[in-house]
Design a protein that fits this description.
single chain; 221 residues; alpha+beta
């Protein structure tokens, strides 16, 4: 497990594609379980370890995941995420080049619980919530493109669904239109960076996750 940042109040981990942040119907072991065990052993803590889940990223996605180590930090971080004061930067690899080199996307989204996917509309509809992100093209090779995405809202499968809607499904993401899967079942979407005010200290924190050790990402190093 790769620890990106750690103090008495928060801990951030570089999640691998395929890991789940918290328990779901699969019953598989979670990243939260691993972090709790790490804290318990490192600090010799008796009994159950407190760990607050602040946010989640999808199972096939890699990158920064932030946890709270105290209830005070959890409450304050929850408020920051709710008020969109946390800067969330993702990197995504697509095979199709986006229609513009930089753009802000405005859509409306509704989660289909049965199929675990998100429907996207370009205009308001009953039961749909507004979804906003901005992207810019960072680099291209003859076959793939690297986009940097900043989330303004936090909808279910938002980046995956919105990029698909403009004809740029994320590489490996069969659910949203990629032509083939990746080895291991992950997709090339990486939670690259979180920027936020520390929930207890009066300072800004930037946490950045190194890219996965895969050849497709190495093309952009």
């Amino acid at each position: 497990m790769e620890i990106l940042y750690e103090d008495n109040h928060i801990i951030a981990v570089n999640k691998r594609a395929g890991e789940i942040v918290q328990s779901d119907k699969t019953g598989d072991r979670t990243l939260a379980d691993d972090v709790k065990d790490y804290i318990k052993v490192k600090y010799n803590k008796p009994g159950d370890v407190f760990l607050g889940i602040v946010h989640r990223i999808d199972r096939p996605v890699s990158g920064v995941v932030l946890f709270a180590r105290t209830s005070k930090a959890l409450a304050r971080l929850n408020e920051m995420f709710k008020n969109h004061t946390v800067k969330k930067i993702y990197w995504a690899i697509t095979q199709n080049r986006p229609p513009q080199e930089a753009e802000e996307l405005h859509h409306y989204m509704s989660k289909n619980e049965e199929k675990n996917r998100t429907n996207v509309s370009i205009s308001p509809r009953t039961g749909y919530k507004e979804a906003v992100l901005s992207y810019k093209l960072l680099s291209s090779t003859p076959n793939i493109n690297l986009l940097e995405v900043e989330l303004q809202t936090g909808r279910h499968h938002q980046i995956r669904a919105q990029l698909s809607r403009i004809g740029c499904p994320i590489r490996g993401d069969l659910k949203y239109g990629s032509k083939r899967s990746n080895d291991g079942g992950g997709i090339n979407l990486h939670s690259r960076r979180l920027v936020f005010k520390h929930p207890v200290k009066d300072e800004m924190i930037t946490i950045e996750a190194p890219l996965p050790d895969e050849s497709v990402w190495k093309a952009f190093e």
